[in-house]
Amino acid sequence: VTAGPDLPPTVGIVGGGQLARMLLPAAARLDLPVVLLAAADDAAAPFCRALITGVPDAAGLRALAEACDVLTVEHELVDLDALETLEAEGHVVRPSAATLRVATDKVRQRELLGPAGVPVAPWCVARQVDDVVAFAGEHGWPLVLKRPRGGYDGRGVYVARDADQAREVLAEVDGPVLVEPQLPLQHELAVLAVRRPGGEVALYPPVLTDQQDGMCREVLAPAPLPDRHVEEAQRIARMVVETVGVVGILAIELFLSGDRILLNELAARPHNAGHVTIEGSATSQFENHLRAVADLPLGSTRSLAPAVMVNVVGVEDDPRGHLADALAVDEVHVHLYGKGFRPGRKLGHVTAVGPDLDGALDRARRAAAALDHGDPS
Ligand SMILES: Nc1ncnc2c1ncn2[C@@H]1O[C@H](COP(=O)(O)OP(=O)(O)O)[C@@H](O)[C@H]1O
Ligand SMILES: [Mg+2]
User: Cα–Cα distance between 19 and 225 in angstroms, integer?
Assistant: First the structure.
């Protein structure tokens, strides 16, 4: 679609949420032309020059593919069959539909990565309560039951303490579930990896992610963990990236449980655990995603200083009404996503960088609390 072979490609992004909104400034800096497939009132829509209003079904994806040179996604709820058809016709899709099939399916992740040597918790797929009870016979209760596909922010993740609760979950999910022991978690970690089509890979230092009720609330970067855990997380991440063969950002969620690091799940797109890279790293996850997708040299993933991100999740009223209170906190980066207020909805985040983790955490928490409640800080 773009003029000549020497110009960077036009990137088509499926989706218009906060991830697309944060991809746009990175694209603008590099003067990469971008076209979005999104709804007119999505968070990113007001900031893009080219918008195709629609949904990621066969027709929407085709319209986007015809308007761009390389197609990528900011969320994974995409018609993958349609994406595969477009690939077969010669459209460039990064990450590929095959990668997205793995990244959107927690069972496939285990099937692919377990045999490749990636440590995962014991698991099974249960279709009926007897399957769950048999697994409990081996591993005990409580168990974690998960929808294999389509869950996010803990939606689709359930704890079952006995057969009755497992039966209720199966009735609600209305399909097979992934079953795991409920692990004692010392910490949750994430490693963001980015890979270029030719195989060049860069890893961001592991970060600590604090989850509450299945939703990421705080990120500490780099993770203040002993070297052996950091090295093990990086070793696993490298194995995962090589096995999946992603193009773009791959977010690798990990558990530190009983002194072992285990794979939790993947996302083949920029990720909440990487928002801290905008100000905390030499190159943000958003810029590196675009560089990879456009097949440009990757940027350094070096951490500039200890950095903290605190999510802004709807509490009692619209955080936009408390912006002045939050900005009264020195040296914080406030990001609001332009999404309508709803209790429990991710509406923004605050990042603070350096000089040390404790200072950054204090500032980011104060600004985020101000956005929640309008507290003077
Ligand atoms: N086997 C498990 N044991 C203990 N906690 C778990 C387990 N699986 C998931 N969790 C908790 O639930 C959260 C969400 O699970 P995850 O599979 O990442 O789903 P989502 O797709 O919603 O992010 C995790 O971040 C973790 O806090
Ligand atoms: Mg998760």
Answer: 28
